[in-house]
TrEMBL record:
Coiled-coil positions: none
Biological source species: Deinococcus deserti (strain DSM 17065 / CIP 109153 / LMG 22923 / VCD115)
Swiss-Prot/TrEMBL keywords: Hydrolase, Metal-binding, Multifunctional enzyme, NADP, Oxidoreductase, Riboflavin biosynthesis, Zinc
Gene symbol of the encoding locus: ribD
PROSITE patterns, sorted: CYT_DCMP_DEAMINASES_1, CYT_DCMP_DEAMINASES_2
Cofactor(s) listed in the protein's UniProt record: Zn(2+)
Name of the protein this chain belongs to: Riboflavin biosynthesis protein RibD
Annotated NADP(+) binding sites: A159, D210, G293, P294, T295, L296, A297, G298, S299
Length: 368
């Protein structure tokens, strides 16, 4: 069991900051960061930018050069031990002559799964596992879900007033003066989140009502995730702004979506939410950001498929009573309870975050 040593945690958080630079760009690979430290000085940094390119350790070792010999490498995920599109990072660390490798979390990929740590130890390198592990697991939740559950990590984001009136953010940017629940700081945070995920999911009702673009407007250097429209009845117009190359439409078997395909969208057919997520997993979606209305979110929640909730509460009242119920719900003793809950103020709004499902992790005997 790892016993916290403050400098180790500090350097690992630098590595996690490096890894964050690749968020939303590495699927089906994980976001990974690496920092090389020698004599208390950071001599190399690196992150994995996208699948097929060198891993974080390679970039950090290149920057460190000869200073890597005898240094400590802090890596957010266990270095790979196999040949994929790139050579094994464990071998690169051995060749560079590092004396110690500190790992945040083990790799759930069965081709690694503790073998990277073993390879380093066999070469006489000291290995420590578990530094800032929980932070790393959060950052890698999508990759871990894709590898261990063959489906994306599902994040449900919504905004509501104090009296429980729920509204999706108007991603089209129209009517912002009067139509949105939350303030500017909250909306900027949502754009930053979009920049970090593989897909944004909405229902056909949201598309028909708002005709959203679902982009990362306002984010410097941002990239737009793939829109995913859940439309079991084929109601979405092929001319909707989300129906474009890269978009995915989830619909029921037998629906004619040829016009949507002609517009560049990919169509998958599913009868249950779990089937839809499995299909998205086969398309290498590791994270899915659900921004649709209560119908889509409710079906995923009822199926136990929402992994994480990010809810904004705005200090506004829309009236018509304090009871927001529009349909029967579970008894209180059957409520789905968030874990690892955090609270954050964003301007006038309150952001509540928590988990409904555990982040998949790998435990290997004798990892430390």
């Amino acid at each position: 069991m790892y016993t916290e040593h403050p400098p180790d945690t500090e350097y690992m958080r630098l590595a996690l900051n490096e890894a964050a630079r690749g968020m939303g760009r590495t699927s089906p690979n994980p976001p990974v960061g690496c920092v090389i430290v020698r004599d208390g000085q950071v001599v190399g940094r690196g992150f994995h930018p996208r699948a097929g390119e060198p891993h974080a350790e390679v970039f950090a070792l290149r920057e460190a050069g000869e200073y890597a010999r005898g240094a400590t490498a802090y890596v957010t995920l266990e270095p790979c031990s196999h040949f994929g599109r790139t050579p094994p990072c464990a071998d690169a660390l051995v060749a560079a002559g590092v004396s110690q490798v500190v790992i945040a979390a083990l790799d759930p990929n069965p081709r690694v799964g503790g073998q990277g740590a073993s390879r380093l130890r066999e070469a006489g390198i000291e290995v420590i596992v578990g530094v800032a592990e929980e932070e790393a697991l959060r950052q890698q939740a999508g990759f871990r879900s894709l590898v261990m559950r063959a489906r994306p990590w599902v994040i449900y984001k919504y905004a509501m007033t104090l009296d429980g009136k729920v509204a999706a953010l108007d991603a089209s940017g129209r009517g912002e003066a009067n139509g949105l629940v939350t303030g500017l700081a909250s909306r900027a945070r949502v754009m930053a989140w979009r920049n970090e995920v593989d897909g944004i999911a909405v229902g056909s009702g949201t598309v028909i009502t708002d005709d959203p673009l679902l982009t990362t407007r306002g984010v410097e250097g941002g990239r737009d995730p793939r829109p995913v429209v859940f439309d079991g009845q084929g109601r979405t117009s092929a001319s909707a702004r989300v129906i474009r190359p890269g978009a995915v439409v989830v619909t029921a078997p037998g629906m004619d979506m040829s016009r949507h395909e002609a517009a560049g969208a990919q169509v998958i057919y599913a009868t249950q939410p779990s089937e839809a997520l499995a299909e998205l997993g086969r398309l290498n979606f590791s994270t899915l950001f659900v921004e649709g209305g209560p119908t889509l979110a409710g079906s995923l929640l009822d199926a136990g498929l929402v992994d994480e909730v990010r809810a904004f509460v705005a200090p506004k009242l829309l009236g018509a009573g304090l009871n927001p119920l529009t349909a029967p719900v579970r008894p209180m003793h059957e409520a789905q309870v968030l874990r690892d809950v955090t609270f954050e103020s964003l301007g006038p709004d309150l952001l509540i975050r928590g988990l409904l499902n555990d982040i998949p992790r790998l435990n290997v005997q004798g990892a430390n």
